[in-house]
Amino acid sequence: MYKECCVFSDMPVDVYFDKGNVYFGKEYCIYHINDNLELRELFVNDNTSYGFEQAITARVVVRDKDKLSVYKQGLLTTVPLMYGSKRQGKYFGDDNFLLRYKEEDTWRFGLFDYEGKLLWTSLNAAPFFCIGGEAVLALAMTDEGIINGYSQANGELKWKLNLNNVLRATKAKAPTAGIIFNNQLFFYTYDIEDPGNQATFSVDMHSGEVLQEYPYLHGKLQKAGAAIYRVGWYIVEMFDLLSGKYAGIDLQNVLKEKQLHMNYSLSVVTDEQLVYFVDGASVPTNQVCVVNLTNSSMVWQHQLNIAEQGHIKQLHVSKERLFLLCTDNSLRVFEKE
After folding, report:
1. pLDDT higher than 60, residue 41
2. Can you give the pTM of this predicted structure?
3. What is the CA radius of gyration of the chain?
4. Which domains does the chain have, with CATH numbers?
5. 97-111, 159-173, 264-278, 323-337: least confident range
6. Which in 10, 93, 118, 125 has the greatest CB count within 10 A?
7. What single DSSP character describes residue 294?
8. Do residues 203 and 185 lie in contact, with contact meaning Cβ atoms separated by under 8 Å?
9. pLDDT value for 85
């Protein structure tokens, strides 16, 4: 199914992938590996090493102490952040970004454009998500476990949702991401004081009303096609967003005979109902596999030769390629045959 076509060596610890593009920072420089597998420099700072905030094809955002450097459509701009290290909670959108910051003794969060202009601000909440569709919202969670939905246009508070109440929790974990479908927001949370109390919820993006609770759907969620998936050691759970039906796809027969486990942190489900995964229940190994979920069959299995009995630590699937970042600081690139 795949053959190795290229190896990049001496890679850094953190590498960012987006649709077949690769970004990384090294020795005060930001590098980009493009669709043609060409390595080029994006920009250099002679004084300070960079830490990534976001890397996508249209925009690269990196932080440098008290400023952001934004590389967009071939242009580099620097956004000063007067709030320095007293900031936390970030979300970067196409034209602006959300940031939680401390002004004197008061925590606030606000919407900034990429020239550093504050568009609007609100009191004490940690932003974690922006959503579009018909309801364009900025979501933030307070220390009391309340999710606030704000209009991105002007910061108007549109709705509130008490996550502790809906989960019946002492201290609900703030969602870190969400899945959008038909103006519904799906997100997973759990009780920090009682981790066994966990569930996924769907919320109306216009009103903040909880539409459904899914206690059986929990953990790392990913969307492919019109379904939400969760990968476990031997099973892939699927929730069909169109029909509302749930299915558990049992892969024990195909995996156990090969002594394989699916590492849920290093797994990707595609629109073609293929699951790519690195072997290893809790600790990943040097094997990568592809299983067809429609017939529970092994499509491809490959073992890498990684120095010092190393393992695969990042996996990225693009349309025609598979990228594997390994503990020997190599990036292995595979192409479809």
Report:
1. yes
2. 0.86
3. 21
4. 1-80 (2.20.25), 82-219 (2.40.128.630)
5. 97-111
6. 125
7. T
8. yes
9. 43
What's residue 84's pLDDT?
A: 45
Residue pLDDT, tens place only, 271-294 = 999 999 999 988 999 999 999 999
Angular region, 224: left φ>0, alpha ψ -120 to 50, beta rest: beta
Strands (E), 124-234: 126-131, 137-141, 146-151, 157-162, 179-181, 184-190, 198-204, 210-214, 222-224, 227-231
Q: Is 253 exposed, middle or buried (0-12, 13-18, 19+ CB in 10 A)?
A: exposed
Express as a percent the part of the chain with pLDDT over 90: 49
In this structure, the number of other CB atoms found within 10 A of the CB of residue 283 comes to 9
Residues 313 and 325 sit within 8 Å (Cβ to Cβ): yes
pLDDT in tens, 190-212: 999 999 999 999 999 899 999 99
pLDDT tens, residue by residue, 64-90: 666 677 777 667 777 666 554 444 556
The three-class DSSP label of residue 315 is strand
Cα 73 to Cα 29, 76, 77, 257, distances in angstroms? 18, 9, 11, 49
From the list 242, 215, 208, 211, the residue with the least C-alpha distance to 228 is: 242
Token code pair at residue 278: 């690195």
Using the predicted structure, report yes or no on whether residue 24 has a pLDDT greater than 60: yes
Helix (H) / strand (E) containing 321: strand 321-326
CA distance 298 to 286: 17
The Cα–Cα gap between 112 and 90 comes to: 11
The yes-or-no verdict on residue 134 having pLDDT over 90 is no
How far is the C-alpha of 132 from the C-alpha of 113, rounded, in Å?
A: 17
Alpha-helix residue ranges (DSSP H) falling in the chain: 163-167, 252-256
Q: Give first-to-last CA distance, the chain, whole Å.
A: 5
User: Which two tokens mark 288?
Assistant: 């990568």
Q: Quick check: 227 and 241 in contact, CB under 8 A?
A: yes
**Helix (H, G, I), strand (E, B), or coil: what is residue 254?**
helix
Residues 181 and 224 sit within 8 Å (Cβ to Cβ): no
Contact 115, 99 (CB under 8 A): no
